[in-house]
């Protein structure tokens, strides 16, 4: 290999070797994780999941909205995905204080809409706080299955209520599903952290990302310059 500029080539080589060294550290399991040592990418992923969870807690706000529907009766019949799912839904809605009857896949629900949604939000709150054992003990089966039953039965109820032009009832159920049940299920098992508590670390990661990208760019630039390869502006042809 022909090296035309030894100084810039050596500089590029230094940048490239150090870049690879840092990359090896990033992929090494030396960073503290929730369940032990993890690599840098897993650490970043875990951190941003925690911060996402910290900014997804809307249960108190949704609860106040759902309280306005206490005393308002609701009645729907929906088709669950299986007879077993309908039986599980009977357990869940009965504990919530509603009347629930299953006939094969068919599930008929009658009750107080506000009280039922308050029960769904109480379970969502427990899931958000990683207290799934309480939910499993309350219903007698896995906490994630309980939340799936809540979501599935309420989702099907929304469609029936929309068909019946009961828009307010459908809307409040949708808000409980989207801002209560879904985030608590998706972030279950993840520790919650506030962005403001990790602002310094987040800023550091962002700055590191920018500098690390430039680091590799300069490595390539100096290596090619050392080999005499460079880009120059093309000369403009003059017409005769």
Question: What does it look like?
Answer:
The chain has 240 residues and is mainly alpha-helical. It has two domains: 6-52 and 195-227; 58-187, no CATH class. The chain contains nine helices and five strands; from the N terminus they run H-E-E-H-H-E-H-E-E-H-H-H-H-H. The protein has helices spanning 6-26, 40-54, 59-67, 83-95, 113-128, 132-139, 143-163, 167-186, 199-226, and strands at 31-33, 36-38, 73-79, 99-103, 106-112. It has a three-stranded antiparallel sheet with strand order 3-5-4. Strands 1-2 form a two-stranded antiparallel ribbon. The longest helix is centred in the C-terminal third of the chain and has 28 residues, at 199-226.
Helicity, in percent? Answer: 55-70%
Strand content: 5-15%
Number of strands: 5
Structural class: mainly alpha
Roughly how many Å apart are the termini?
41 Å
Assembly context of the chains: single chain
Instruction: Please summarize the sheet with the most strands.
Output: 3 strands, antiparallel
Run of helices and strands? HEEHHEHEEHHHHH
Radius of gyration (CA) equals: 29 Å
Number of helices: 9
Strand order in the sheet with the most strands = 3-5-4
Q: Uncertain regions: pLDDT < 50 for 5+ in a row?
A: none
Q: What is the mean predicted local confidence, pLDDT? A: 92
In total, the number of domains comes to 2
Shape: elongated
Offer a few descriptive terms.
2 domains; transmembrane helix; 3-stranded antiparallel sheet; two-stranded antiparallel ribbon; membrane; transmembrane; mainly alpha; 240 residues; 63% helix
